[in-house]
Amino acid sequence: MNGRIAVLTTRVEASERKDLLAGIATAAFSLGMSVSVFSNIYNHWINDKVLNFENIIYDLFDPEPFDGVIIDSEPFPSIPDMSIIDGAVKKIRESNVPCVVIDRKIEGLSSIFSDDSGDLERLAEHLICKHGLRRIDVLTCDAGGHISESRLAGIMRAFSRYGISPDEYRVIHSGNYWDDSGEALGRRYASGGLSLPQAVICLNDYMAFGLCKALTDAGIRIPEDVSVTGYDTNEERVLRYPFLTTMRRNRYSLGVEAVKAVTGQNVGDIGRHQELVYGLSCPCGIRSDQMHQDVTTAYSKWNRTILGSYLQFSVSLTACRTLMEYTSVLSDYFYILYNAEKLSLCLDSEWNSPKFSGEEFMRIDINDSGCSSPKTMTSAELLRDIPAEDERPSMYFYSPLYYQTRLFGYTVLKFGTPESYDFSFLDWSKTAGNTLEFLRMKNDIDYLSQCQKVSALYDSLTGFYNLGEFRRIIDAMGDAELEECEIFAVRLNVPEESSFSLGENFKSEVISAVASALKSTVKSHEILCRAKDGLFLLLVKSPDKYFLDRVKAMVCYALCTNENVFSVGVKIEKYRAAELDALLNAPESKAKAGDTEGPYSKALLQLRARIYSLPKRAPAKEQEAKTLCISPGYFAALYKNSFGISYQSDCINSRIMLAKYLLCTTVMSIFAVANTCGYTDEKYFARQFRQFTGCSPVQYRNMAY
Prior knowledge:
This protein is α/β, with parallel strands linked by helices. 45% of the residues lie in helices and 17% in strands. Strands 1, 2, 3, 4, 5, 12, 13, 14, 15, 16 and 17 form an eleven-stranded mixed beta sheet that branches. It has a four-stranded parallel beta sheet with strand order 7-6-8-9, with helices on both faces. A four-stranded antiparallel beta sheet has the order 19-20-18-21. Residues 450-454, 497-501 and 591-596 have low confidence and may be disordered.
C-alpha cells in the first residue's frame, strides 16, 4: 500500500455519508491507499453524559499514522455540535499531516465545498422553465451559515435570470432542516396566515417532508394546488407521501475531490454527476428507473433487517458464560455485518474492571470462519498496525464498544470495497455492548457467590461489609498497620417525607447511588462498610492528600445530577482508624441539605440540577431571573439562601466537580475535559482547577489511578 487516509465523521450509516465515503474510498484505492473512518454511532447532537459517552472514539484518533485527514462536517448540524472533535482538530493543527474540511471553514485548515448553489439554481430553473411557475416561496434557515447562504444564492440567481421580482417570491427564514419547521410552515398556509404560492422550494428533504404532510393533512393538493421540492434525495423519500421531487447532490464526486485535495494527486475522472430526481410533488411525475433504484435500495435494507435475526443474536450472546463463547457467537452471526470482511474486537485489557485503562488492548479478529487467538496491542498499534497488515487497500471503521458510560474498547470493521458500511452495524453495536456488560455482571456474580458469604458478612443493598465484619477486620490489625490507616465517614441525611413525595424506593436509590460512587473512588485494597442506614465507612491505608477531595467529588456528583436528591444532605469526615468507637458513638449532627421551602424552591432545584448535570450550559443570572420574573438581585439572594452559596460560585463549583468526576472515571484528554465542563481555554481551566484543588488536572488524575 502507498499510504492511509483518515476520515472524521458521524452517522456513517446514512445514505448521504455512504455516497461520500464511497467516493473517498474509490479515489484512495486508485492511489493504493486505505481509508480509516472514525465515527460515533448514536446521538452526536444530544447533550447527555450517558448518550454522549460514545464520542470518546474521537479521543482515540491521532493523525500521526496517517498521510492525510478528511473532516466531513456536514452531519454535524452546527459549530457547537462539532465541539466533540475539538481535541482531534487540535492534534491535526499540531501535526504536519495535511487535512481538508468538507463544507465548513475551520481556522488553520483548508476547505472544499459542494456545489449546493448550482444544484438549487438548476432546481429553481426546472420549476420556472418546465412548469411556468413564478410565485415561489423558499424555506431556509434563520441561522444562516455557509450552507444556507450558498443554497439560497443559487435560487436567487435563477429568479434574477428569469425576471422574477421580489413581489413574486418570499424567503421564509423559519426552517431548521427538520420536519417540524416544514410542518409549521404548512399549518401557516392552511390557516390562511400566509397566502399559498404556486411552489415552495425547501433547502433540504426533511423540511419538504414536513411541509407535504401538513398540506396533505389540511386537504391541500400537491402538486395541483402547490408544488413542493426538496434537496438531497434522502432515502426516506420512498416512505413519504407524495414521492418528493428533489435534487441528488453529487457527494460521491465531492469525496473524490477531497482525496485529490488532501493528497495533491490526480485520481482521474471517476466522479458521478448530480441529477434531478423526479417525484409526484411537482407536475413531472415519477421516472420509473429512478423510483426502481430507490425502492430496491429500501427493500434490500428492510429485507436485511429480517434476515439479521437480531433476536436470536441477542439471546445467544446473553447466554454466554465466557469471553470465548461470546466471540464464537459473534462469528456465528457475522453475516449480520453486511459485506464486511473482518471485525477486530479490541477490548481494553481491564475491560471487566470499573475503570478503562486505555493502555493495552486484547485484539481478537472475527469473521464467518471463526476467531483468532487474542493478541495484545497498544492504542497506537490499533491505529497503525491493523491497516498495515493488509496488502490491498481497504476501508476500516473505528467505533466505540460501550455500555452507557462503561467503555470496553473499540471495534474495527474492515471492508474490501468502497460500497461498504451498512446500517445494520448500529443495532449490532448496541446489542454487543449490552450483552458484554451482562457477561461482565455474570462473572462478578459468580465470583461473589463462590468466594464470599454474602448474607453473613455483607450488606445486601450495597455489597459492602456490615459493621460487625468491618470491626473484626480492624481488630485483627496490628498496631503498626492500624497507625497507617484512616477511616472516611460519609453521612447521609435523607428527609423522612421523601418516601411519601418521591416514592418508597427513593432512599434505597440514594444509598445505591452513593455506594456506586464510592466503589468508583476506591482501589482494590480499600475496605468499604455500610455501618448504619445512612453511614458509610471507608478504611484506607496511607491515603494520598487528595483522597478526601475525590470522595467528596464522586459522592456529590452522584447526588447532584437529579433535582430530587438535592434535598439529601451529605457530610464527609476523616478519622484515625483507632477512633472507630468514638466515631460510632458521637451524637449525630444533621448533614446539611439545601433549603427547599418557598414559592421558587422547585424552580431553583431544577435549575441547580441542570447546572450540575450540564455546567457548560449554565444560564446567566440575569436570564434565569427573567425566566422567574424577578430581579437579578432578588434571584441572587434567593439562590444563596436556598443553597448557602452564590449562584456564580455554584456554577464554578459545578464545572470543577464535573472535571474531577471525568478525571477520575474516564480517559478523556485534558482538553476534552475542559471543553465538556464549559471552558474554551485549556490553560484557564487548568489555572482555575489548581486554584480550587491545589493541584493540576494531570496530578489529580494520576492520584486517582
